[in-house]
Amino acid sequence: MREFRGPLPTDTTRDVRARGASVARQVAVLPVGSFEQHGPYLPLTTDTLVACAIAGEIAAAYPVHLLPPVTISCSHEHAAWPGTVSISSVTLHAVIGDIAASLRRSGVDALVLVNGHGGNYVLGNVVQESSARGERMALFPAAEDWEAARERAGVSTSLLTDMHAGEIETSVLLHTHPELVRPGYENADFVADDRRQLLTVGMSAYTDSGVIGRPSLGTPEKGKELLASLTDSFGTCFATLTAG
């Protein structure tokens, strides 16, 4: 594992860094992505690339260990589209548990799961159960972190509407991996805010293209600001894990 110790972006997080550096507790960051369709213009690895972008910015700003990503997770709602690959929630739960246990044997007793795929619901259970056992684990970003990032970046699509391959994901990839964004996102907007039966009928019941959101509004500038905001927001998570 490589440890990053770069400068922190704000006075608040700089104070957190000073406190964190004074304790022996070590923190690892694990990006968790997926391998699933993201419309005709974003790659199957989109969620992994987004999770790695967030984790990479965090590792450049905080004293954490950056782990390689989990690249296949729970994408069952996208099964109607070729190319989508999933593992069961039980398997993902076990993988995270094994990684956390291995880290603890190496002296790294705190783990942050940077989740890039909304369908990885089980990660919340993993964190809850680990915390109940007295282990230090966190799930990042929270919905509040995304909302703050959306507002700071000037993303006009709400988090409800921006569900898949929309303004946020397109913006992040236009900033970090523009060579992987194909033409077509400019005309691919599709809105389906009422998705209450999603877990029962899957994504294909709500969209033919796999897109739910407004990718036409994506820009690299928004992607840059989204990542900057999430990096700042991570300060609270880091402080929580390193306290005491």
TrEMBL record:
Keyword Plastid part of the UniProt annotation: no
Co-factor(s): Zn(2+)
Alphabetized InterPro entries for the sequence: Creatininase-like_sf, Creatininase/forma_Hydrolase
SUPFAM superfamilies: Creatininase
Transmembrane segments: none
Pfam families the record matches: Creatininase
Keywords for this protein: Hydrolase, Metal-binding, Zinc
Family assignment from sequence similarity: Belongs to the creatininase superfamily.
Protein's recorded name: Creatininase family protein
Organism: Streptomyces flavalbus
